[in-house]
Amino acid sequence: MKTETVAMILAGGQGSRLGKLTKQIAKPAVPFGGNYRIIDFALSNCANSGINDVGVVTQYQPLILNEHVGNGSSWGLNRHEGGATILQPYSSIDGEKFFKGTAHAVYQNIDFIDQKNPDYVVILSGDHIYKMNYEKMLEYHKEKAASLTVGVMPVPWEDASRFGVMNTDRADRIIEFQEKPEKPKSNLASMGIYIFSWPRLKQYLVDNQSKNRKMEDFGHHVIPAYLRNSESIYAYSFKGYWKDVGTIESLWEANMEFLDPNHELNIRDKGWKVYSSNPNTTPQFLTITSKVVDSMITDGCYVAGEITHSILSHNVKVGKNSVVKDSFIMPNVVIGENVTIEKAIIGEGAQIYDGATITGTPGDIAVVGYDEEVGGYSDEK
């Protein structure tokens, strides 16, 4: 059966800039916004855009991510024809196992894509927070008769060196591309969203591999090769909210922005839902001593303290006289009594003992890692 479009979500990143938060978990599986994991946004965009054939390419610490995605049923992707497929590195005839880069990950999964026989492949990052209709971008790609279309948006100049940046002509054709330059010539950043005409991309990947030419990364190798060969490359401008949550500060900022009831993501929009796979747990319980202001408290939480402008993910426990302010608490965290937490991210399964104080600043967010213990006996080890 022929499929017009296949999406490949690149979800194998280590996320080293998130430090201890990704020591035991892939970045796309990091919790976000109380009920979600970061990859939920790309998966939900695919489901809402009518893209039903989705490959999820994993590599680093994939167990939680694999369990979370499953067969894609939480996103309506578990179909007889189509669905979500976990794609992990495997030993091939040439002995290669691990993916060397974004383009190499796609090359290693050519057989999966060819089974679908698509006209187009949508390449997505699994670690960005946004809503986007990929169908509209695909229509633009077709109108331009493009070989490649890149999703773009302007970013602050001080952040431009973190991204692939490009210059375009008046027709939005990309004429120059720089991958994470020290001195960027533009602040028009790639969102890591690409639509390729599949037969052409496959030819590039296969031909260069056969000639031992590097074709491992889209930013460093594929896009420059397309430019050298005068391929038809266009920029597709995105106007909505998009956040690269690749640093501690950006992850904290995105969660704090998520608390705004007028947030651009409009999480309550029934016409474009963000789906997730959530545990079946008990309702939240707020004791008589609790105080909750401007916060999100999800299912399974027990709160006996004071919560202000914060997000508590499922199954978080907060003891008496504890204060949580301007913070994001990931699932299954236990916070004891008389604890103070401010401007912090607390990782999954962490244990914060009685009397502990964890405070950060907007430029230096305090972080407690996955299953980490703070205070009490942990300080005496």
TrEMBL record:
Q: Which residues bind alpha-D-glucose 1-phosphate?
A: G164, E179, K180, S190
Say which domain of life the source belongs to. Answer: Bacteria
Q: Nucleotidyl transferase domain spans which residues?
A: 7-259
Q: Which Pfam families match?
A: Hexapep_GlmU, NTP_transferase
Q: Which SUPFAM superfamilies match?
A: Nucleotide-diphospho-sugar transferases, Trimeric LpxA-like enzymes
Q: Which reaction does it catalyse?
A: alpha-D-glucose 1-phosphate + ATP + H(+) = ADP-alpha-D-glucose + diphosphate
Q: Where is this site: Could play a key role in the communication between the regulatory and the substrate sites?
A: Q59, F98
Domain Glucose-1-phosphate adenylyltransferase/Bifunctional protein GlmU-like C-terminal hexapeptide as annotated: residue spans = 290-358
UniProt KW Oxidoreductase keyword: no
Q: Could you tell me the keywords of this UniProt record? A: ATP-binding, Carbohydrate metabolism, Glycogen biosynthesis, Glycogen metabolism, Nucleotide-binding, Nucleotidyltransferase, Transferase
Q: What is its EC number?
A: 2.7.7.27
Which GO molecular function, any one, fits this protein according to its record?
A: nucleotidyltransferase activity
Q: Report the top EC class in one word.
A: transferase
Q: In which pathway does it act?
A: Glycan biosynthesis; glycogen biosynthesis
* Family annotation (PROSITE patterns): ADP_GLC_PYROPHOSPH_1, ADP_GLC_PYROPHOSPH_3
Q: What is this protein's function per UniProt?
A: Involved in the biosynthesis of ADP-glucose, a building block required for the elongation reactions to produce glycogen. Catalyzes the reaction between ATP and alpha-D-glucose 1-phosphate (G1P) to produce pyrophosphate and ADP-Glc.
**PANTHER family membership:** GLUCOSE-1-PHOSPHATE ADENYLYLTRANSFERASE, GLUCOSE-1-PHOSPHATE ADENYLYLTRANSFERASE-RELATED
Listed under subunit, the entry gives: Homotetramer.
The entry sums up its family as follows: Belongs to the bacterial/plant glucose-1-phosphate adenylyltransferase family.
- Name the record gives this protein: Glucose-1-phosphate adenylyltransferase
Task: Provide the species name.
Answer: Alkalibacterium iburiense
The gene that this protein is the product of is glgC
